[in-house]
Amino acid sequence: MIKMVQLGLPVRKWVPDWLALASVFIVILPVTMLNGSYTGSMLEVSNTLGTNTEDITMGYYAASAGMAVAYPIVPKILDSFSAKFHLLCNLVLQFFLSWICARSQNVDVLIVCSFVIGFMKGFLMLWFIRYAQTIFSPKKIRSEFYSYFYPLVYGGGQLSMVLTAELAYHYNWKYMYYFMMALLLLSILTVIVCYRHNRPLKSIPLSELHIREMFLISVALLMLMYVFNYGKVLDWMASEKIRWYIVIAPVLVAFFIWIQRHSRKPYVSLMPLYHTKTIIGYFYMMLVMFFSTSTTLLTNYLSVILKVDTTHTYSLYIFLLPGYVLGAFICFWWFRWQRWRFRFLIAGGMGCFVVFFGILYFGISPDSTYEMLYFPVFLRGVGMLTLIIAFALFAVEDLNPKFLLSNAFFLIIFRSVLTPIAATSFYSNVLYHLEQKYMFSLSETMTEVDPLSSMKFSQALTSNLSQGHGYMEATQLATSTLYTTLQQQSLLLALKEMLGWLFIVTLVIAVISRFIPFHKTIRVTFAKTGDDMV
Predict the structure, then answer these.
(1) pTM (2 decimals)?
(2) Residue 83 — left, alpha, or beta (φ > 0 → left; ψ -120 to 50 → alpha)?
(3) What is the pLDDT of residues 91-110, one digit of tens each?
């Protein structure tokens, strides 16, 4: 077991090494699952508060935006306060923010709290990383560290969705917040008992916190997220607010970039955006998240075609966890051995998405089973984590260590904020338009002349009459049954078309990736700063 002297963890003298090591994970466990809004209880929250499900989505990704905004200033804060003081303040604030989210009836409050929770999570995550690097990789090999770190982070987020769905189904959607509050109390108690103050408090000049820059990029990100998230609900350009945001957000981003370029001590350096490997890494990770967000299509299939409830829908995604573990295991040994070229790993990871979309395209039907989705969901987890780890390494391979914080800032924004919410909007809008197209196409042939539709209508009418309904009421019910069938068929055809295109696109990318000469090696040690989180 690793010694605390080697780790440098500020614990009390009487604390044994095993307890000190456990305390690190007790503190970080709730952080990996914490959010201001949980998509696993999306329907329950929207029904209770009388809001759209898009409001919950907005809150969920607002937390990632908050983390991105916080990250450039995190080291300054951590170096100015003792670990115990910082942990207690952060965890206590997270506790009360979770309580506000549980009690609030206002969606705007929920979104703001989600952003602040994400902002505060950034500090806790970096605190954990500074010690986890030594715990997971004593020899300071970044590929080994990522192979442990990413499954923990993504697995915690996925586990929170499953727990939320279970608690919302059996009890109430608020119980997820109460559960997280209990975990936070355990973390707070652990810090009070086991930790000591390791340095005096230092003041930080206000200019070094870059309040103006953080405000600019926060507003710009939230505006862009608003456009993507509420575009379908507000009919895009028909909304005056969306029209304003489309104009204002790029202006704020341009002003933010201008400030960074002309500042002697910028809030975030733009140098990663001039680095070829970094840009390629961002691009591929955005593709990975775009394809991974396609589980929204699978959710529609489960709820509308197979009639699966929310609990079973999110329970299916638990099969992502063994996929994450296998993907991390592959990356761990791939980069340790380094006997094969990097492009083979990328082609293999993208191949997992090819098989995922292929199985769904050829397998989904009204007669399909819930169990047949286990394997493709598992493969999606393998492909996603393999590619995320690979390109997280690729993006920083030749990057100057002093730009790692800036790299993390851009990486979180592109990978965890803008791409998922834009992809969700894309899938939702395209699916809606395709469903309407097929609905119109199928309804043209559904007349009494068509023997299939006529037979189905007659069967439904006879069944309703035999149940004691009057003729007019039975006719309306039979028509409704026919419409439900039509709706299911149009949705199935729309899903088939989208999954078919995704299958072709991922296949092409996998083949092209096989022949791209990415680079020579990727066995990279950590920079001295130890602040390259992602």
Answers:
(1) 0.89
(2) alpha
(3) 999 999 999 988 888 888 88
